[in-house]
Amino acid sequence: MQIKRYEVNSIQEALNKIKMDLGEEAVILSTKRLRGGKVPLLEVTAARDETGKKFDARKHDGNEMVERSASSEIDMMRSDLSEMKALIKDMRREDPIRKELSQLKEHLRSLMNVLGTWEKNLFPGPQSKIYYQLVVNGVSRERAYKLVNSVNRVDNFENTRASLEDTITNSIPVPGAKKKKGVIAFVGPTGVGKTTTLAKLAARYSMNEKLSIGLVSADTYRIAAADQLKTYAKIMGLPVKVVSEKGEFREAIMGFADRDLIMVDTPGKSRKDRGYMEKLCDFLNVDVPVETNLLLSLSSSRENMLEAASRFGSVNYDNIIFTKVDEATGLGSMYDVIDEIRKPVSYLTVGQNVPNDIEDANPEIIARLIMRQS
C-alpha cells in the first residue's frame, strides 16, 4: 500500500493532488486542521493499494476475518467522509473577514440611503433647516432630532430657532460660583492645553482679582512641561513647586497654606496607560477638598471627547473647560458631551494668548455657539 501525506489550503486542492499522484482508486485515510501558521492548512493522508485490485467482499464469503476487515474499512471510510463533511461545513462557516466587512459596508450604504430619504421628510419647513444646521454644526443626528422635535412647530424660521436656543439653554447645567479659595486641579488628555489654561486663569486671578496664587506642576512625564509653567510663573511673579509623588503634593499644599488659590497642573498620559487613572485619583485624594476641571479640546472629534469624559469619570471632576474653540469647525459637539455627562462648563478658551484668550461660560453663551451658523 502506498501512503502519502499532503498539506493543502482546501479539500478540493487535496483531492486534485491525490488524484494526480495516486489515481482514482486512492482512499483518504484522515484529515486534520493544522494550526499555528499564518494561514490555516489541512493535513490530508491518502493511500492506494499498489496491487491495483479492488476489494470484493463477495469473493471471500467464507473468510470471516476478511469480512471484518472489509466492514472495518467501510466504517473507516464512512467516518472519514463524515469528518470531511464537518470540515467543509466549518470552512464555509469561517468566511474571510473581508467578505463580512464587505457585506457590512453594503448594509451601511443601504442604511445611509434610507436615512437620507427619511431625513428629507423628517421635518417641515423651518424645522428641517434647523435640524440640518445642528447636524452640520456637529450635533449628533439623534440629539438633533430630539431637540427639534421638542420645540413647538411654527412657520417662522427665526421664532423656531429662538425657541430651540431657549430649549438648549435650559437643558445645560449652570456652573457654580468661581472658586476663590482652596485647591484647583486641571486634568485631561495630552495636548488639550492644561498648562496654558492654568496660566491664563492664574494671570486673571492674580492680576484682575488680586488673589494670591501658588502653582504646582505634577506633569513630570512630558518633556519641558514643568519648565513651561515655570516660565509663566516667572513672568507673572508667582511661586511654583514641581512634584512627582503624593507626599510631595501634600507638602506643596502645606507650603502654600498662606495662598488664596493653589492651582495644580497634571499630566495627560496616553489612554493605553490603564494604571494612570488610579494613580491620578490617589494623587488628588489629599486632606483638603480639590476642585477638578476636565479640559476637552473642541478641535478633536465628538467621539474622542466622549471617550475622554468617560475615562476621566473616575476622577469625579466638577466642571468642564472646553479649549481650542477658535480651532473647531463646528461647536455643536459640545451639546452631545454636556448632555451625556451632565456637568457644568466653567470656561472656554479661544486662543493661545495668555492671559486674554479665555472666557467665562454659561448656558446662554454655549447655546448660541451650538446654534451658530457655520
Q: Notable features of this structure?
A:
374 residues, alpha/beta, Rossmann fold, 3 domains, eight-stranded mixed beta sheet, three-stranded antiparallel beta sheet, 13 helices, elongated
Would you identify the regions where 5 or more consecutive residues have pLDDT less than 50? 54-70
Terminal CA distance reads 81 Å
Global outline:
elongated
- CATH topology heading of the largest domain: Rossmann fold
How many individual β-strands? Answer: 11
Output mean pLDDT: 81
Task: Walk me through this protein's architecture.
By secondary structure, the chain is an alpha/beta fold. The protein folds into 3 domains: 2-51 and 64-93, no CATH class; 106-171, no CATH class; 182-371, P-loop containing nucleotide triphosphate hydrolases (Rossmann fold), CATH 3.40.50. Helices cover 48% and strands 17% of the residues. It contains 13 helices and 11 strands. It has helices spanning 11-22, 64-93, 97-120, 125-137, 141-150, 157-171, 194-208, 225-236, 246-255, 275-284, 302-311, 333-341, 363-371, and strands at 2-8, 27-34, 41-48, 182-187, 213-217, 240-242, 261-265, 290-297, 319-323, 345-349, 358-360. The strands form 2 sheets. The protein has an 8-stranded mixed β-sheet with strand order 6-5-7-4-8-9-10-11, with helices on both faces. Strands 1-3-2 form a 3-stranded antiparallel β-sheet. Strand 9, helix 12 (333-341) and strand 10 (345-349) form a beta-alpha-beta unit. Helix 11 runs parallel beside helix 12 (333-341). The longest helix has 30 residues, at 64-93. Mean pLDDT is 81; it is low at 54-70.
